[in-house]
Amino acid sequence: MKLFIIIPLHSNLILKSKENITLIDTILSVKLSNGSQSDSNRIDFFSSPYFEETKPQYEYIGHIDDLGVFILLLHFWEDSDYRFYSTITGKELLQTLESPEFSPKGDKFISSYTSPYYEVTDLQLCKITNTNQKEIRFETVWNIEFKNWMMVEAKNNLIWISNNTFILKVLQSNYFWNKDGDFNKENFQYLKITLL
């Protein structure tokens, strides 16, 4: 039996403060931080009043000051994704499957999504690079799909144990559902993945 030291996730990098946003009806407005004090220095996102396949509803998740980004969750009819935007320009920088789980050093993160319809788990590894003092870049290193393992829909289903190694709490696809048609809540297994 191996004992692992659990390193806290950097999800606390995402601040939930809503002081820079306003929501009026279906318009989400985010104040940009490019030095201008003008109220016109905002970017507006217009949500569909209904869940649709091509027009999203926008939800503010938070911002990461160290990276100069804010994150929105876009809800579609049967799908959703997370989008990272620059707090300076408002430009979209990255799209991920789920909320990021940052490595201990905060230089990379994993986004994971388990599809109950297709019975697969998708993982996305993104690296954070700083090309100069003002611009953060995100590089998608890989996207992979597990066809025989499905991550458990639970808190702490991905845990970093070092800056290059993490553990996934999974079930074999055949055992993801219990006899009642709900998610299986026992017989978990753990996959240890090391990034080389």
> Can you give the helix content as a percent range?
under 10%
Number of separate strands: 15
Quickly count the domains: 1
Alpha carbon gyration radius: 18 Å
Distance between the termini: 24 Å
Summarize the structure.
The chain has 196 residues and is an all-beta fold. The chain is built from no helices and 15 strands. Strand 9 and strand 10 (120-130) form a beta hairpin.
Question: What does this molecule look like?
Answer:
The protein has one domain (11-148). The protein is globular. Helices cover 0% and strands 47% of the residues. It has a four-stranded antiparallel β-sheet with strand order 4-5-6-7, with no helix packed on it. The protein contains no helices and 15 strands. The chain has strands spanning 21-24, 27-31, 42-46, 57-64, 69-75, 80-86, 92-96, 101-102, 108-115, 120-130, 136-146, 149-151, 158-160, 165-172, 189-194.
